[in-house]
Amino acid sequence: MQALRSHDDSRIAGVCGGLAKYLGWDSSRVRIVWVLATIFSAAFPGVILYLALWYLMPEEPPPAPTFDPPPMQPWKKSF
Q1: pTM of the model
Q2: Is the dihedral of CA 59, 60, 61, 62 positive or negative?
Q3: Domain residue spans in the chain?
């Protein structure tokens, strides 16, 4: 399984949402860990790594469209 940027769980670019889905974690936990790691590493490496992952991680495909069945037409008889 490949880590993909999340299409539906994104705040900025979907990197943390995609990593959370890949790791099986809650996305809030990944975001908190990312922010704390960024703050305690003097901000520079965390921001650069986020930007690199934004560029390098492919985006997950959008969900397939769902089509509802046509409405029933009681005036037409089906044989």
Answers
A1: 0.69
A2: negative
A3: 15-56
